[in-house]
Each structure stands twice: as C-alpha cells, then as structure tokens.
Design a protein that fits this description.
This protein has 371 residues and is mainly alpha-helical. The protein is built from 15 helices and no strands.
C-alpha cells in the first residue's frame, strides 16, 4: 500500500483536458510513463524506492542546511549519506541496516534533507527498524519544511496518527567535553570517563616510540582526528594511543599483513566500514574510528577487549572469551594500555546491534596480567 501511495505521489499530474482522446495515444502515454517510473525506481537500487528520484538540482538543494553549513561540511554530509546508502542496499559491502540508520541519523541531525528522506523511508517500509508510519511522516514532513519537494510528496503519501521523532534525533544534554591535553603523546588521563580509571598496568617491556613529526600536514591530521573522535563519541586519548601504536602517525604505513594507513586497516575492515581509499588519511581515520566505536559497543565498553578485537578480530576474542593468548595481541594491548590505562569507555549500545558478546556477563574481561 505504501508503494502504491508513493507512486501516486511522485507520478506527474496531467489535467483531464490534455489527455489524448485516441486509445492508441493513451496506451503510448501510459507505456512512456511506466518506462520513466521504472527507470527512476531502478536508479534507487531497490524496488519501489523513490528516495533516489530527486533530480540533481534537488539533491544539491537538499545538501544545503539552511545556508549555514559550509561547503566542506556539505560534502561530508553527502558522503555520510552515500555510505549509509551502500550499507542499506548492500552496494559493495554487506547489508547493515543498523549502520545505515546510524549514518542517516548523524546527517539528519544537521538537517540533511536527503538523510531525512532516506531515514523516513526505512521507517515507512520497516527496513531494519519496526515499521512506523507516524515517524516516517514526521521525517518526510521535516525534509519538506527544509525545502525538499520529494519530502513534501512523501509526507502526503505516508500518514500517521501523530508526530513521532526517532530517538536518534532527540537532542539531549551532552556531558561536558573532556579537555584534550597538548600533544605530543603520551597524554595525561582524563579525570573521568565512564568509570574510575584502574591503576596503570605494569608492563615488563614498556613501549618505545619515535617522536611524531611536527609538519603542517601532521597537525592537519591531528585536527581531523580530534573532530572525528568527537563525532564518534570516542575519547581522543584512546584514539591517539591506538594510532601511535598502529602506525606512529605515518599515513603511508603498511604492515607485513597488509594493514594500511594511519589506523592500519586491512582490506576486509576497510570494505566493511565503506572506506573507498584506504590511503586517504581522513577516510582511514573515519573507518578506523568506526570500527573502534563498533568494538566498544560489541564488548559493552570494555577497552581491553575492544583493543584485542582491533588487533586480532572480534571473532578471536569471542573464541577465547577474553584476550587471545597470541604474543602479538598481548604485547599490542599492553603497549596501548601503557598510554591509556582506563578499563571502561562510554559506548552506544545500538552501534553493534543486533550483535553482542553475550558471554561477557559470566566471563572475566581483563586478564590479571593486563591490569
């Protein structure tokens, strides 16, 4: 029913007096309209998905958020929505509705009309979320109020008994940001994160690092890392400690196992988190932080298990129900905890849904040798 309503909403309207009288002409007009509609639906990558039917000028207008967002931010929001589309429709990566929903929500919070329309479409059709016409109508209506003609038409086609906003768009008071200590690392510990920090681990062979470069390019990457860490709700100290251990801030670093870039993404992880160019420092940072955020959610905020998963994979941590007894992984976790000796980190419980390390409730999470 929703598809039929939306087809009527997006179909071109013709006044009765302009319809041809001859049956052959009417049949030709209907066939032409059907071909046009089919082509537009095919462009969306799925059956009955008029979300992608906006024209190029419409999309350009939808990416402008009330004239406030800068051109650079517009591009970032557009890429965010494109990544969400790839996850939603399994384009070049596995289908992940939760990841698509999260990306759409992040862009919709900054009034991206494209994201609002796509998010509304997920609720209108129950794609990864419970179907809710009220939420879909509210999102389409908001997109229309921001200038999207498609949003207005969809709001007229999908109705709900009341207005509902998804939880991800409800503005809540943010905790005071943790002040970032001056670089270079190691950085002092934050006063508090989610739980009190544990004692600094005793490491038999403390990590030794070369001094990082102090070039303008290096400082630019640090600024980008700070911004992305805030977007992913990650403590920048943890991010910097991980980058330091992984690549020592070398964007061209490549390991013997083909881990690449600042956050040493292997090709499988890069594809999983929609990283197009692993050698682009910004994309590499975004993909690595996306994986770290996912791991913290999967392991319920346990920093040690998240680090072990980053090095050996979450599957290895699950099989061993703790830090795998691999010398490389044990040394890796110890090196980072020497820089960041905090056991717990805030996490988004929805980031890894529907997956979760269910064994955590009954298993010790941090081996004594790593505490």
């Amino acid at each position: 029913m929703a598809c039929r309503n939306i087809r009527r909403a997006v179909a071109p309207q013709r006044s009765p007096e302009k319809r041809p009288d001859r049956p052959a002409a009417r049949l030709a007009a209907r066939r032409l309209a059907a071909h046009l509609l089919g082509a537009l639906l095919l462009a969306a990558g799925t059956v009955c998905a008029p979300v992608a039917m906006a024209s190029a000028p419409d999309k350009a207008a939808e990416n402008v958020t009330n004239g406030v967002t800068s051109g650079v931010r517009q591009d970032e929001l557009r890429l965010m929505v494109e990544r969400g589309t790839r996850f939603e429709h399994a384009e070049g990566t596995r289908r992940d509705f939760a990841q698509a929903h999260d990306l759409y929500c992040r862009a919709a919070r900054e009034d991206s009309t494209d994201a609002l329309v796509r998010l509304g479409w997920m609720y209108a059709n129950g794609r990864g979320v419970p179907r809710n016409d009220s939420t879909a109508h509210t999102l389409f209506k908001r997109a229309g109020a921001l200038g999207s003609d498609l949003g207005l038409r969809l709001a007229g086609a999908v109705k709900g008994p009341d207005e509902q906003v998804p939880d991800c768009l409800i503005v809540r008071a943010e905790p005071a940001p943790v002040a970032v200590a001056p670089l270079p690392l190691p950085l002092p510990l934050p006063a508090a994160i989610a739980e009190p920090a544990q004692p600094t681990p005793v490491v038999d062979s403390p990590a030794a690092f070369r001094a990082g470069p102090s070039t303008p390019e290096f400082r630019k990457w640090l600024a980008a890392a700070l911004k992305l860490a805030a977007e992913h709700k990650l403590d920048p100290r943890l991010v910097f400690a991980l980058i330091r251990a992984e690549s020592n801030f070398d964007p061209l670093a490549r390991s013997a196992k083909n881990a690449q870039g600042l956050m040493q993404l292997i090709p499988e992880t890069a594809e999983r988190f929609a990283v197009r160019d692993v050698w682009d420092p910004l994309e590499n940072l975004r993909g690595g932080m996306g994986y770290l955020r996912w791991l913290l959610s999967y392991f319920k905020g346990d920093v040690v298990l998240a680090l072990a998963g980053y090095n050996a994979g979450e599957g290895a941590v699950d099989r061993h129900r703790g830090v795998p007894p691999f010398p490389e992984t044990l040394a890796y976790v110890q090196r980072i905890r020497a820089l960041y000796p905090v056991d717990r980190h805030p996490y988004d419980p929805k980031a890894a849904l529907p997956l979760r390390a269910t064994w955590l409730a009954s298993a010790p999470t941090v081996p004594e040798r790593l505490r």
